[in-house]
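Format notes (please read before filing issues)

Several people have asked whether sequences and structure tokens are stored in separate files. They are not. Every record keeps both together, in the order shown below: the sequence lines, then the token lines. Line labels are part of the format and must not be stripped during preprocessing.
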Amino acid sequence: MEDGIIVNNIRKLRFNQNEMTQQELADLVGVTRQTINAIEAAKYSPSLELAFKIANAFKKPIGEVFKYKIEP
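Then the structure lines:
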């Protein structure tokens, strides 16, 4: 099985949402700003529950926020 990483569009979605800050998103989903920062930078993969909460905060399907990218 090949390894992969979870990539996301959170930064773009925040910008398109009236330039929502990391702190505003963190407050909406119940985590710290540092957690949002780490997820955005692909240094941390969110739990499935948190991924759904983030997608719901943007009113987007989870597949529009997160993708699983296979590393060659």
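For reference, the curators noted about this record: The chain has one domain: 4-70. The chain has five helices and two strands.
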